[in-house]
Design goal:
The protein has about 250 residues and is of the alpha/beta class. The chain contains 11 helices and 4 strands; from the N terminus they run αβαβαβααβαααααα. It has helices at about 5-25, 35-50, 65-80, 90-95, 105-135, 150-155, 175-185, 190, 205-210, 215-220, 230-240, and strands at about 30, 55-60, 80-85, 140-145. Strands 3-2-1-4 form a 4-stranded parallel sheet, with helices on both faces. It starts with 5 loop residues before the first helix and ends in a 14-residue tail after the last helix.
Length: about 250
């Protein structure tokens, strides 16, 4: 992160959002508020760009920690936007109950499926609410994405889940850069410096990945900047997740 000017970059992102909304003829933003820094910072950017009256945050607990909901309210109170709680625990449990008709599975068998189901249910919830409030308020609400550059590079997102959104304000910023933007936006420190985790698996992001975000950022700038074992891990994560970005599509020959 060389010569990163948080004020300048924040102003550019805010203008990017305003320009896109004007060109697309849309008026509102809806996003999941997890209680973590990325969603808190995106919320701050959307409020700055569109006004708090045009932003809706949604908490979507699913066997989640109560702290995450509390931290989400901290963000909404600070920026003054509307916060909706939409509990998807029952939906998740109903979905899981249907597995009984398919046979017996161990918790180990289900772990990855369970983890990825939750963001997919959250995606469906956000788009449902976006359509609902677009109808109720007479302006189109877009779903704002909250992934940062480090997460995207190593594929730390769910295909068909948090990868689905209409505008992506922080996707070209590393974790460290995102935090600098958050400091400029005065995101509450309890959220801004909170250890990143998905709120789903009871593990930190870095524990699940096996690498630190600072190393991912350094690697993206210069592959020789990190230990070779770490570099190889990052290369493998990146390569193994390329399928999330591109769908192989057959093109018929002439």
């Amino acid at each position: 992160m060389k010569n990163f000017d948080a004020k300048e970059q924040t102003e550019k992102v805010v203008q990017f959002i305003r320009d896109y909304y004007k060109s697309a003829g849309v008026g509102g933003a809806i996003l999941g508020i997890s209680g973590g820094k990325d969603s808190g910072i995106v919320a701050g950017l959307m409020v700055e760009a569109l006004g708090k009256e045009n932003v809706i945050g949604v908490t979507m607990p699913c066997h989640s920690k109560e702290e995450d909901k509390t931290d989400a309210k901290l963000i909404s109170d600070y920026y003054g936007f509307e916060l909706i709680n939409f509990d998807i625990t029952g939906t998740f449990d109903t979905f899981k109950n249907e597995l009984e008709g398919l046979g017996g599975f161990s918790e180990g068998d289900l772990k990855n499926s369970d983890i990825n189901l939750k963001p997919r249910l959250r995606m469906a919830t956000l788009y449902y609410l976006a359509a609902l409030y677009s109808s109720l308020r007479g302006k189109t609400y877009l779903v704002a994405g909250t992934s940062n550059k480090c997460e995207l590079y190593v594929g730390y997102f769910t295909k068909g889940g948090d990868s689905v959104h209409d505008i992506s304000p922080i996707a070209d910023f590393t974790v460290e850069e995102v935090i600098k933007i958050g400091e400029y936006l005065k995101v509450p420190e309890k959220v801004l410096y909170k250890q990143p985790n998905d709120g789903l698996s009871n593990q930190s992001d870095e524990d699940k990945l096996g690498v630190k975000y600072a190393d991912v950022a350094a690697f993206m700038e210069d592959e020789n900047a990190v230990d070779e074992k770490v570099a190889e891990k990052i290369r493998k994560l990146h390569a193994n997740n390329l399928h999330k970005f591109n769908i192989p599509t057959y093109k018929k020959s002439a």
